Amino acid sequence: MFKQSTPTMVGPDGLPPNARVWAMLSLAIGVGMASLDTAIANTALPAIANELQTTPAASVWIVNVYQLAMVATLLPFSALGEIVGYRRVFISGMFLFTLASLACALAWSLPSLVLARLFQGVGASAMMSVNTAMLRSLYPPHLVGRAFGNNALVVAVAFAIGPTAASLILATSSWPWLFAINVPLGLLGFFLASRMLPATPLAAHRLDARTAIYNVGAFGLLILLFGDAAHHAALTTLLPELLAVIVFFVLLLRRQAGHQAPMLPIDLFRRPLFLLSSLTAICTFAAQGLAFVALPFYFETTLGRSPIQTGFLMTPWAVLVAVMAPIAGRLSDRYSPGVLGGIGLAALAAGLLTLVWLPHQASVLDIGWRMALCGIGFGFFQAPNLKAIMSSAPAHRSGGASGVVATSRLIGQASGAALVAYCFTVSVTGGATYSLWLAAGFAAVASIASFSRLAVTPKAV
Q1: Residue range 1-203 in CATH 1.20.1440.20
Q2: Distance in angstroms (rounded) separating the CA atoms of residues 401 and 389
């Protein structure tokens, strides 16, 4: 049923169909757990803060440290994947994530939980950093879009069921079980990945530890700066953070200058298609981050809906993303990602604008079709954009491209969440509406960036 644990070298057409299914399942478990834990932790913060007897502001670190650890280490892990193999990095990340999940479940205080979440974020980063590169190696070129569509489906389903799963777990047991459920899943994923993921060609260069340290400092402090700026921290805090970010980025760029495979892949950003696709991703995920944080406040405060109603009203977006992701993946094997992404993101911008213009007495149907339009648009963007980023990078730089995919998503989402916080400091009553206006603007810019790719890519067949 399973192959031997000794990995085989993947061929130019990927794995045979049967082996591909098991390899895809192992990747889906890892990516699904990493995505699910973000949604679960957000929902459970009040319960965790109450039981650990800490303040809501302090409990936010349970989410922030996970995100910070991921953003700071994605590019070093993607570079490491090119050197030692994507398989090794993914399996190691799965092991660390599972072990850290157990530590989260056994945490007895906020500091111990935050420390465990830090290691959990590092494990999630290792998996996410090479996931897209690993996917590219499993499928023949003409089916890569389908692979990315399936991957987008897994992420969408994880985010969709996260809040519901957290609510069900908290209704029947205590918060440690939110993390304990990862342990059996992680063990299953580790078992499958160890036996089913193939080996990939290795790069000849070595990992530069100093470059990795500079990268961690630059991106980690950048995310910290976003959060502090959004909450109007004092200039005595923001200016040193900004200076440190600049210093680390300068050191990073100088250190990797002339490197054949730079950790921060400047070589790939010189490719117009790669640059435009990355810009499209950052703007789109900023729009998503703005919308997902602001919409619950918009529904409850502006439209007067209950928390339970809000949960159901958020569902159409996630469900339609899950429905559209595999469809868009298959279409991306035939049509231009620039067209598919541009149309989808124009639909997302339109859906967000219609939400802003909702009447105060809007019915469930009025809200539902608008949320569905947003979900269709967002789902139409993901797989084609993934394919555009990965196909615009040479095969031996798949690790660097995969790191950019995950980094673009997280930086976009972090920026969006920070902008929501800023909007609420501008106006408590109008903050949610301002956030949705910004989200629509980001989606429109992303649509323009996507259509711009038509000028730098051959016409689709």
Answers
A1: no
A2: 7
